[in-house]
């Protein structure tokens, strides 16, 4: 099968983790790779805007979408090879990310355990270059395959072509909206070393007395569940703001004014600041504008308490950004894509 069914006036409530009740004029469920080139040839949607959605965990939908939503449901996960140093694992873009990480461990292939319980799909992971607890996905990335929507042609992207940055990639910038990622291949090291330096993770591991890949996976899950709301219960997109990175000079000036500022020195001498700490210090933790609120346990997470719109979430985010800039002279940047 290479053709697709065009769905009309399609609800996107189940396709965004904020739980916004918006609709797409058209939608297509992509269950087979061969369906994607057919999109470029279909006259019914010629010239129509496209929105690629995986789990919808990194998007703020502020209104109905007057175009075609491409719902990526491509499955499959396989060990495809190895070399002297690593094992290569490929997964379909529609695979659930957390379930994929758990599967790699079940195959005896550690390396992704620090990224457990991050919501979303495998195909979304390289777009955002997801990261947590001392590991970014880009460190384990080998290549991906993507299909260009305008031509239907398949392209392969290596790490350099993806241009990974902090919560950033080619696909969030020049490539935004141009491609559907169909599969991602990861390079998992044979010589595994633990990443367990973060205090929260270290405390859990100390209690359990273990330090193997499964123990780190379990610790990450426990910490994330304790700190972050379940999007199925309380709509959210995880961390809403990036942790800002500042120069050593700027950090020194900030430290002089705010001795308790939470920071992490970077290899290049810059300092990454904890955006949640900045927001908390501005008094926003637990506060709300209507049904849009800052989570009461983690100030980095904005939540939909029920009935909030995407526009209200952005109104809240803008108010937070203004206060943080006024107090700290730091510009916060949103992680999710806002449409």
UniProtKB/TrEMBL annotation:
Pathway: Cell wall biogenesis; peptidoglycan biosynthesis
Cellular component per GO, a single term: cytosol
Pfam families: FAD_binding_4, MurB_C
Domain FAD-binding PCMH-type: 20-191
Keyword Membrane in record: no
Recorded GO MF terms: FAD binding; UDP-N-acetylmuramate dehydrogenase activity
Keyword Cell division: yes
HAMAP family: MurB
Function statement: Cell wall formation.
Cross-referenced PANTHER family: UDP-N-ACETYLENOLPYRUVOYLGLUCOSAMINE REDUCTASE
Name of protein: UDP-N-acetylenolpyruvoylglucosamine reductase
């Amino acid at each position: 099968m290479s053709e697709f069914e065009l769905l009309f006036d399609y609800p996107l409530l189940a396709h965004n983790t904020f739980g916004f009740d918006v609709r797409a004029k058209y939608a297509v469920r992509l269950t087979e790779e061969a369906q994607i080139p057919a999109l470029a040839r279909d006259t019914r949607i010629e010239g129509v805007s496209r929105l690629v959605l995986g789990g919808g965990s990194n998007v703020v939908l502020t209104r109905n979408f007057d175009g075609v939503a491409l719902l990526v449901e491509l499955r499959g996960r396989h060990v495809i090879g190895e070399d002297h140093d690593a094992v290569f694992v490929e997964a379909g873009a529609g695979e659930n990310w957390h379930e994929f990480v758990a599967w790699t461990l079940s195959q005896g292939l550690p390396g992704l355990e620090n990224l457990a319980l991050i919501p979303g799909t495998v195909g979304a992971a390289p777009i955002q270059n997801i990261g947590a607890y001392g590991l970014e996905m880009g460190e384990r990335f080998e290549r991906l395959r993507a299909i260009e929507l305008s031509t239907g042609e398949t392209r392969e992207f290596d790490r350099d072509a993806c241009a990974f940055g902090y919560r950033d990639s080619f696909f969030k910038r020049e490539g935004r909206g141009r491609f559907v990622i169909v599969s991602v291949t990861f390079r998992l090291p044979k010589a595994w070393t633990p990443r367990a330096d973060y205090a929260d993770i270290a405390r859990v591991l100390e209690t359990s007395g273990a330090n193997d890949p499964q123990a780190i996976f379990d610790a990450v899950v426990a910490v994330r569940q304790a700190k972050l709301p379940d999007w199925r219960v309380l709509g959210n997109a995880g961390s809403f703001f990036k942790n800002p990175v500042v120069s050593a000079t700027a950090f020194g000036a900030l430290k002089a004014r705010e001795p308790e500022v939470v920071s992490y020195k970077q290899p290049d001498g810059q300092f990454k600041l904890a955006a949640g700490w900045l927001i908390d210090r501005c008094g926003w933790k637990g506060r709300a504008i209507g049904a849009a609120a800052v989570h009461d346990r983690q100030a980095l997470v904005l939540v939909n308490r029920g009935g909030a719109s995407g526009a209200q979430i952005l109104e809240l985010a803008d108010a937070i950004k203004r206060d943080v800039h006024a107090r700290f002279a730091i510009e916060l940047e949103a992680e999710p894509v806002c449409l």
